[in-house]
Amino acid sequence: MSDSLVIIPTYNEKENIEKIIRKVFSLSHFFEILIIDDGSPDGTAEIVKNLQQEYPALHLEQRTGKLGLGTAYIHGFRWALKHPYQYIFEMDADFSHNPEDLVRLREACVKGADVAIGSRYVRGVNVVNWPMNRVLMSYFASMYVRFITRISIQDATAGFKCYKRIVLETIPLDKIRFVGYAFQIEMKFTAIKYGFKVVEVPIIFTDRTEGVSKMSTRIFREAFIGVIQMKISSWFRNYSRKA
Description:
Elements: E1 4-10, H1 17-25, E2 32-37, H2 44-52, E3 58-62, H3 69-81, E4 87-90, H4 101-110, E5 115-119, E6 127-128, H5 132-149, E7 161-164, H6 165-170, H7 181-193, E8 198-202, E9 205-206, H8 217-234
Parallel strand pairs: 1-2, 1-4, 2-3, 5-8, 6-9
Antiparallel strand pairs: 4-7, 5-7
Family: Belongs to the glycosyltransferase 2 family.
Protein name: Dolichol-phosphate mannosyltransferase
InterPro entries: DPM1-like, Glyco_trans_2-like, Nucleotide-diphossugar_trans
């Protein structure tokens, strides 16, 4: 059994899912994979089931309906904590996150980070194939988050991450309330408030070439308002770690 689990939420990813699974299993470090599929009508889950016969370290959790990215990761975190994984990853299915960087994120945590973020902005802007309006929206969203929350993370909305087990054991997952970009912000903010060491590892982000983006204006709206709500709520929360 591996010490590392990669959680990949899916909804209609039949074009990408087999390729991403095979790529992760080809890496120099052995990662297990957990697919959280939200009832994809395109047959994504069936592709995963077929691959499970070839890869015993490939796991699948199926949910009914499109329930949101944040809830998919929370589901995956809870599943992971029932097993002895020490490093738990978030990654997209569409190759916007380069699977090769999983090894670098894990290495950052092995060397002392509690959370390692695959960062698009820690060294300039490293984004490929995104239209300029998306680049600007994402970049200035991170600036907005830093201004409101006073955290120093350059890529606050990044969704490519490695957590040490203790982080997910400490954060009360039932109190994480957001589902889109705001979920990614809330997890970073909460980890920092609990005193965990969060580092950014530079990556190159490449927009998907197959399948359909799940981004929407509603997700950005949730993040914009949610950051203020999250900051205000933090004034009334106790972030002391249990002994």
